[in-house]
Amino acid sequence: MDWIQFVLAPQVINGLAIGVAVVLMALGLTIIFGLLDVINMAHGEFYALGAFLAVVLIGLGLSFWLALLLTPLLLAAVGYLTERTLIQRVFHSKDRHTLTLLLTFGLGVLLEDLLKIVFGANPLRLETPIAGATELLGLFFPNYRLFVMLFGGAVIAAVWLLVFRTPLGAMVRAAAFDRHMTASLGVPVHQVYAATFAFGVALAALAGVLLAPMYSVFPTMGRDFVFIAFSVVIIGGMGSIKGAVLAGLLLTQVQSVSSLWISPVWSDPLLFGIMVLVLVWRPQGLFGRLGHA
Amino acid sequence: MSADNILQVRNLSVRFGALKAVDDVSFDARQGAITAVIGPNGAGKSTLFNLVSGAFRPHSGRVTLAGRDITGQPPQTLLAAGLARSFQITNLFFELPVRENLRLAAQFVEAGPWWRGLRPVQASRAALQRVDELIEQFDLAADADEVAGALSHGQQRRLEIAMALASRPRLLLLDEPTQGMSHADTQDTAGLIRGLVQRGLSILIVEHDVDLVMKLSDHVVVMHQGAKLAEGPPAAVRADPAVQAAYFGKEAQHA
Amino acid sequence: MLETTLHPQGRALPAAPNRGRRADALRWIAGAFFLAALAFGIVAWAVGDVFFLRLATEALIYGGLALSVDLLLGRTGLLPLGQALFFGLGAYVSALVLKHWAASFWLALAVAMAASALAGLMGGLIAIRSKGVYFALISFGLAQVVSKVVYNTRELGASDGLIGVPAAQLGAGLSTALPLGFFLVVLALIFATWALLSWLMDTPFGRQLAAVRGNEQRLAFIGVDPWRVKLAVFVLAATIAGASGALYPMLRGFVSPELMFFQVSGNAVINVIVGGTGTLIGPLLGSSLLTGLRSVVGSWTEHHHIAIGLLFVIVVILAPRGLVGGLAPRLQAWLDRRRDQELS
Fold first, then answer.
1. Which of the residues A12, B174, C111, C161 could staple to C157 if both were Cys, CB 3.0 to 4.6 A apart?
2. What is the pTM for the complete model shown?
C-alpha cells in the first residue's frame, strides 16, 4: 500500500501531467497533418519557443498566468505568418510532401539556432507557480502538476468539442476531407490553412509553457520532446484526434511507470520499439485511416 | 479459338467493413477471347479487377490461371505467371520518357539471375528490342523521347496498354482502356484490342462503354452491387431483363 | 492553386526531361570538381597548410555521407533523417579495429563496411515498410535510440567517446598520418564511390530506383518487388555511410557519440539539397562548400549554423533543385548548342 502511495502514485501523477502536455503537442501535430497534409518537423521548436517566450514574459514582470495566456496567442500569430509566407509557397508543387517536410525541417533548424543565439545553450529555470501539494484520496498531488492536469485536460476537452461539436469544426473537418470541394463552396481555404497551422502551433507553445516550470528550458528541448509527440501521433494514427489523446496518455504512463524498473536510457528505445511494433501490426496506427502519409 | 479457360474465378469475395464489395462472384474467361465485365457504377468491377490482379487479397474464393491457383498472390508473381494489367487512372511513370517507361516494363523479358540487373541498360538487348516493337505497334514513335506526362490523354492511354503488354502476358487485364478518349481514339483502340486477340492473347476488359463492349467482346459478365448478375454472349446479356433493370431500373419503372 | 487538379504533373524535383543527355553536363561538373579538389590538395600541401588539407579531407568524408543520403532521397525518394547512425557506427567500428585489432586501413574499412551493411539490413527491415514521413521518423528514431545507448555505454567511452586512435597503415609505407597522402586516398575513394553510383544509375537496378521514386505502386505490376529494391538501396546507402564514417577516426584520431547525432544527419540532408538532389555530384559539391563554410564562418562567429539554416530554407523555397540541379540544364543547353554548331 505504501509502495502504491509513495512510489507508484507519484510516477502515475507525473506521467499524467507530462501526458497532458504530450497530448497537446500531439493534437497540434495531428490537426496540422489532418487538415494541411503537412508534417510540421518544426513542431518541437515551437514548443521550445513557447517555453522561452514564457521565460521572457515572466522576466519582464508578467505573472505566470498572464504568460500562460499570452504565449500561445503570440505564437499563433507567428504560426499564421509562417504558414502564409513560407509553407504556402511550396504547398502546390508536385513534390509537396518532401518539400514541406524539408521546409519545416529547415525551419526547425533555424529556430533552434535562433534560440541558441539569443539565449545561449545554458538551461534556464522557471519557478513553480504553485508550490506545495494537496492530499486527495490518500495520494499526494503536487499542486502544479494537479493544475497542469486539470488545465491541460480542459483545453483538450475544449479542442475536442470545437472540432466535433461546432460548425467551425465541421467546416475544418470538411476541408480536411476534400480540399477542393470546400474551396469551391466559398470557404477561404488559404486563411483556414494558416489558422489551422497557427492553432496547432499554439497548442505546442501551450505545452511548452505548461512544462517549463517542471523541467529546465534549453534550446534543444524541442528535439527530444517532439520525438515522443511524433511517436504518439504515429501510434494513435495520423490525423486522428482520438488516437492522439489515447496514445498520448497511455504512452506517457508506460514511460513513467516503466522508469521504476528500467534505466531512463531505455525509455526512448522502449517507445521506439512500441512504435515499430504498432507500425508492423497496423501501419495506419490505432485509429488512423489508410491513405495518409 | 480454344475452348480452354485461361481464367477461372470461383466464389470470389471481399468485404470492406460492412460493405460486400465483391460477393461470391464466379465466371470463366476463355483462352484467345475477349471477356468483358460490365455493370453500373459501384457494381464492384474495379474491385474484382484488383482482386484478380493481385492488388487486393480476397477473403474467400479462388482464382485459377491456366490451371494454376493464383489466389491472393502479389502482382509480381502474377506477372511471372502470365497475367498483366493496365490501369483505369493512368498510372505511368510520368517523369520518365516514354521509352524508359516501356523499357522498365519490358525488362521482364530479359531472363537471367538478379545480378544481370547490374549490367548497363544498353546490354539488355531483348528488352530494348521489345521496346522498339511496342513503340511501332502502338504508334508512339513521334514522342518516344518525350516525358510520359507530356503526352496527350489518348497517347497516355495507349502507353498504359503497351506497358501491360510488354511482358508478353497470356492474359491481359484492361481496366477501362478507353476512359476519357475521344470517339475516334476509342474506335482505334477497339481495333487495336481486336488485333491483339488475333495474335493469341486472352483479354479481360472492364468497360463503361456498353456499345463498345457489345461489339468487341465474345463473352460478357454483368455485375451489380458486388454480385454477378448475368453471364453469356453479348446479345443474350443485352436482352436479359434483369440486366436491363439494373442499368435502367428507374426509367423502366417510369415507363 | 486549383490548377493542380487540372495539371497533375507539375515541376518535379529534380526535373530530368532527358536523362541521357543531362548526364553530359553532370560529367563535366564532376570532372571539374575532382580536378579542382586535386589541385586544392596539392596547393595546400605545397603551401604547407595542414589545417586546410585536413578540412578538405573532412569535407570529402562528409561528402561520402551526403552521397548515401542522395542515393536514398534524390534517387529513391526516401528522406532519411538518421543516416548519421551508419556513419557513426562505421566510425566507432573503425576506431575499435584500429585500436584493438590492427592498425590496418583496409581491415578497418572492410570491417566497418560489413558492420554497416549488417546494421543497414536490420534497420532496413524495420524502416523499409514505411514511406514518406514514417520512414523519415523511423530513420530518425533509430539514430536517436542507438546514439543514446552509445552515449551511455561506458565500454565505448560514454559521452567522451574513444580517443587515441592510431594512424592506419595502407601498406607500402603509406600511413593516414600523412596529410596529403590521406587526402589523396580519401579523394580516390570518394571518386570511386561516385563513379560506381553513377554507373549504377544506368543499370536496370539503378533505373528501378527512379521508378520507385516516380510511381512505386506500378513496379509490382511490371514484375519488380519494390520492397526488395528499397531494402537493397537502403543497405547500399548504409554501407557507403559506414565506409565514410570509417575514415573519420583515421583523420581525427578519435570518435564520439556526436557523430551519430541528429546534427550530422541534418547537415547531410542540407548538403544534399543545397548541392542538388539526385545529381550525385551535387551532394559532393554541397558537402565541400558547406563544410568549408561551417568551419570558416564558424571561426568568426558561433552563429554559422543559422546562416546555413537560412540558406537551406531559401533553397527549398526558391531553388529546390539546388546548385548543380540548376546549373546542369543550363550547361547542357550550352553544350548542345556548341555541338550543333560544330556539326553545321
1. C161
2. 0.89
